[in-house]
Design a protein that fits this description.
The chain is α/β, with parallel strands linked by helices and 245 residues long. The protein contains 9 helices and 6 strands.
């Protein structure tokens, strides 16, 4: 079988090396002969997977890569075949990456959450295939390796303009604004994410919960109005609202 070249591109700090070594181990486990090199100066028929976190610098770097491809700066032999969402730490991080991939007409091959198992293996210099073969994250690396072996079609992403990227970034910044934090005990952003209800300035916790009930038809008593500063332990009763305890 002819040698296949697969390049992984990622902004510094997003965990590209971790993804590469674990996918290489999964390919070797599947019977493939694998060699990992730092970079390849001969981009002959190279499939490129972009590794990204949900952080803006990483997504901006990815957008630059797509723009270079669209402008013909990258060689024609370099094929963009998808994204890997890596080291995603929070409940909304996957949604950020998914939204960006949709806006830019990309495809996410796999989402890999941040994991203590991965972090621990790095201390021992081991891959998950060796150290934790039954871990969920090991399955995710095997899933990515299987997709690479099957072959991924080239995508034709549409990079966002500088202005569109800034607008998109601000739209997520608005959803994560500091006014979504009340009393340091409960992040109402998750209510906003789940229900679409904005959190205006000056509203008390009880007022926000009442708004959720009225706008979304929750039955009376489905959300408890708690004393100021208390963790809203009964919020999970309301459909589409997430209790973060």
């Amino acid at each position: 079988m002819a040698t296949r070249k697969i390049a992984f591109y990622g902004h510094k700090g997003v965990g590209t090396t971790t993804v590469v070594v674990n996918v290489a181990a999964a390919l070797a486990e599947a019977g493939q002969r694998v060699i990992v090199v730092g970079c390849d100066g001969e981009p002959n028929s190279t499939a490129v997977l972009a590794v990204t976190s949900a952080q803006i610098p990483s997504l901006k770097s990815l957008n630059h890569l797509m723009r270079f491809k669209a402008q013909g700066i990258l060689p024609k032999a370099v094929r963009l075949v998808g994204l890997v969402g890596n080291a995603l730490p929070t409940i909304y991080a996957e949604a950020v990456v998914e939204d960006f991939s949709h806006k830019s007409e990309q495809k996410v091959i796999v989402y890999i959450p941040r994991s203590l198992v991965v972090y621990r293996c790095e201390f021992f210099g081991e891959t998950l295939i060796d150290a934790a073969p039954l871990a969920h994250h090991t399955y995710l690396y095997r899933k990515l390796a299987k997709a690479l072996l099957a072959g991924l079609p080239e995508l034709s992403p549409e990079p966002l303009s500088i202005e569109d990227f800034e607008d998109w970034s601000r739209s997520w910044g608005d959803r994560l604004c500091p006014q979504c934090l009340y009393g340091g005990t409960y992040n109402l952003f998750h209510c906003t994410l789940a229900t679409g209800v904005p959190v205006p300035d000056g509203q008390s916790e009880g007022m926000v919960l009442t708004t959720l009930r009225n706008r979304h038809g929750f039955a009376s008593g489905s959300i408890d109005v708690l004393e100021e500063g208390a963790v809203p332990r009964a919020v999970h009763k309301a459909k589409r609202v997430i209790d973060l305890r």
